[in-house]
Specification:
The protein is of the alpha/beta class. It is built from eight helices and eleven strands. The protein folds into two domains: about 1-120, Rossmann fold (3-Layer(aba) Sandwich); about 125-215, Winged helix-like DNA-binding domain superfamily/Winged helix DNA-binding domain (Arc Repressor Mutant, subunit A, Orthogonal Bundle).
């Protein structure tokens, strides 16, 4: 999941950045609202964590511009502003959820998972495709009722595919979501991970759609 973190507090931002990456997110961290607005016009994200009290441009201004463009990316406001009026303003401007600082990282991740499910029209917390079951809360995978050990990159690819069973996901889309601005990607990185997933789950689980990308099939 590619996540934009917009937070001007260096200590909090460092902690959130590390925690999110440890939980499998590809994180772009920006410190002001103007930079966030520029990034959001150029890059698609799966999730946005947005502070309100930002330099150069407020979080509400960034959010309003995002929604005015018709961008439906899930937005979770993270802020110390706990007044009812602030919460109402954030939600009415287009935020999907609102979390008051300080907060537990476990709650943050749970809210991110809930927003992701809602955004993709999923009611169940577990992702299933055929005999493969993925639990985003524990980052665990089973196949034919047996646990399967995956590397972080393998898990991210499988999670991306299983969020939309049957849909074709291109290699470029995976690269965009899984690798940050300053990370180098070799030309066959995705293919290598797909090959290893097929070895672990069975060759029939992930299908190559020539010229388009990959899909999981039951």
């Amino acid at each position: 999941m590619r996540t934009l973190l917009v937070e001007d507090d260096t200590m909090l931002g460092n902690g959130l950045n590390r925690a999110l990456q440890q939980n499998g997110h590809t994180v772009d961290w920006l410190h002001d609202g103007a930079a966030a607005d520029t990034a959001l016009r150029a890059q698609h994200y799966d999730m946005i964590l947005l502070d309100l009290g930002l330099p150069k441009r407020s979080g509400l201004e960034v959010l309003r511009a995002l929604r005015d463009r018709g961008d439906a990316t899930p937005v979770l406001i993270i802020t110390a502003r706990d007044a009812v009026a602030d919460r109402v303003a954030g939600l009415d401007t287009g935020a999907d959820d609102y979390l008051i600082k300080p907060f537990a990282l476990d709650e943050l991740e749970a809210r991110i998972r809930a927003l992701s499910r809602r955004h993709h029209g999923q009611s169940q917390p577990l992702l299933r495709c055929g005999q493969v079951v993925l639990d985003p809360a524990t980052r665990s995978v089973t196949c034919r009722d047996r646990p399967v050990s995956l590397s972080p990159s393998e898990y991210r690819i499988l999670h991306s595919l299983m969020r939309r069973p049957g849909a074709v996901v291109s290699r470029s889309d995976m690269e965009e979501r899984f690798y940050g601005w300053d990370e180098e990607i070799s030309s066959n990185t995705i293919e290598v991970h797909i090959h290893r997933l097929r070895q672990k789950l069975g060759p029939e689980v992930i299908r190559t759609v020539r010229g388009l990308g990959y899909q999981v099939v039951a």
